[in-house]
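Intended use. Records like the one below are meant for learning the mapping from a protein sequence to its folded structure. Do not use them to infer anything beyond what is encoded.
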Amino acid sequence: MSESSPAMDPSFDAVLTESLDAAVSAAREAGASIRGFYKDSYTVKEKGEDNPLTDADLASDRIIAKRLKRDDWGWLSEESVDDPVRLGRDFAWIIDPLDGTKEFTLGIPEFVVSIGLVYRGTAVLGVLYNPIQDEMYSGVVGRGATFNGAACQVSTHAGLTGARIVCSRTEMKKGMFDAWTDRVKLHPVGSVAYKFGRVAAGQAEATFTPQPRNEWDICAGVAIVMAAGGRASGRVGQPYVFNRANPLVDGVCATNGAVHADILGLMT
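Structure written out for the chain above:
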């Protein structure tokens, strides 16, 4: 990279353009593979409570790795063995090959292929693809976001009254959002990453949870929300830093920006 700011560096811009095209192509190919498994026969293993692993996850991971993995960039995927060499790389792909596996196994079409790219810890590019609904969200920070090929932006709704919140179906069933039902409109949605896409496209004002999430759950979504003019942070407003040794992050708050402070207030 040149000595100039990455945002002003033509070579950096070219890298992002090439990477976005490659990520969109990889997401579509991985999505086609996932469609082949959907509501069909596949093996399911349990990695933990509410954390299944299927043949579709692994097939998607192999496809994305084949298309995007490179020796000079870092790689962090939920379904790949972690290699600490990534910590020394400027660029790193952060991947969830099938975010929302539980919904996939239940036949609920609320899951996505999630592909994020970070530069020196900052999310710069994201692609989310729902292969069943054929919905593609993408974005490059500073260059804008798209939904199914058309430019999209976060909503302009201000204030909690009437705000549409996409939240975890599991957490909602456990009563974790009960304290806020009289203040916001809650809409349960499966995949963590898919919720970010909804916010970026103006289909909801926010998504949040005080519970920890992993970098691969949110990286692509953070980039797309930011590209669409929104804001994303941890549960107390801290900016995200990606490609860390420990990929667990402290809570989620992704909004249209106008309601960000209000949403953070709900979690404190």
